Amino acid sequence: MDVLPRDLMHKILFMIDHRSVAMMRCTNRSLQTHINDPYFKSEYSSRVGSGLVHISASGSSYLSYNPNGDSRSLKTKDTLKESHILGSCSGLLLVFIDDRLCVVNPVTKKFRYFNQSWFMRFTGVFSHTGVVNRGNKKHIGLVVDRTTKSFKIVHMVDVGTDYESRYKFEINGENSWRRPKTTLTCLSSVPLKTPVYLERSLHWLRNDGSIVSFNLETEHARLIPTSFPRGLSLKTLFTLGNNGLTLISATEEYIYVYSLENILRDPKWVFVKKIQNIMMDKKKLSYWNLEAYNGKCLLLREYRAKEEEPLFCDQVVHVYDLSTNKWVVMGSIPGWCSVNHEFFQFTPSTSYVVGLDEILPWAGGRISSLSTIMALIDGSSSEKVEKQLGKDQPDTVFFSEQSAKKKRRVV
């Protein structure tokens, strides 16, 4: 294969599923070079497309995945233990399982467990029963730096009063939690959505319209004093679009897309596009919501009662393609999915990420749950994945994070 032209080699690799591509990386250096080629990685990601991972906002033992947004190949599995998804970034998932945080790449089968920080336990983000506080969950973000190929978990903590917010931050970058010195004090408000990562900073939209920005490079926090566009509805989505930070507002008739401009000097939400809402028969509609947006497609979910069984509902997912200005029905999702399901866009990645090359610690229940999540996304059996993870563990590596830290200090 070393003698094949670059373009021909890429065409061959484009025809292979992401799980096989991940396995082929380890076979020889020539294949690894082709797969790590920036052009191939960019083109392959665009062809693979973003899937949708969804789970109950209050946590569940059931997790669903729509690869490439195709409802016909919807996959659902019981993750064995009550699980929560807290974020997704560059092919990694941030998961909470059995009192532990975990960052995982389901394609490469690499992951790392983390203890909760002191602030997390103090503020009660996760209770002793494994239930996640939905408000505090919005304070946690996962970021992947494509330059350094490293990841970080960031937790924003409000230690203020009812009248004044005082934000402190803590970061875990592979090994342990630490607290930067920066503190941000401002009028009291709460985050509306999970944070959005852009240009080395995490951004939290608050209910007064302002945005808290934390720069991962300088570890400095600042308040972006923005105001919501006039006439903003309760159906909103704060996300990342082609032009940067994006705010989407929807009514039953139209969906409005705004982009944040002049973020450093005079930040303002600027109107970008108006989209006709696709909802059909409003009389039968029980619930609808905006779920995801990536600059190319917008996802909307309908929740409507069945004619033959009024006590049960159908959930239909529509996708708006901005390139063609057309709505298409992506399909339906399981009837047992609650209205409070959360959706995460997930693009499979075979990229190596620093810090996910060490598997710690071994715990049967957690590994079983994690292997089920991995199998759900890459299409293999959870038993096979769990067996593979067990083989990856040396006989003498059944130790805790604390002993691992001691070992690293000795080395």
Automatic annotation (TrEMBL):
One of its GO terms (biological process) is regulation of DNA-templated transcription. SUPFAM superfamilies: F-box domain, Galactose oxidase, central domain. One of its GO terms (cellular component) is ubiquitin ligase complex. It comes from the Eukaryota. Pfam families: F-box, FBA_1. InterPro entries: F-box-assoc_dom_typ1, F-box-like_dom_sf, F-box_dom, Gal_Oxase/kelch_b-propeller, SCF_F-box_component. Residues 4-41 form the F-box domain. Transmembrane segments: none annotated. Residues 75-230 form the F-box associated beta-propeller type domain. GO terms for molecular function: ubiquitin-protein transferase activity. PANTHER family: BNACNNG10540D PROTEIN. This is (rape) hypothetical protein. It comes from Brassica napus. The gene is BnaC08g21820D.
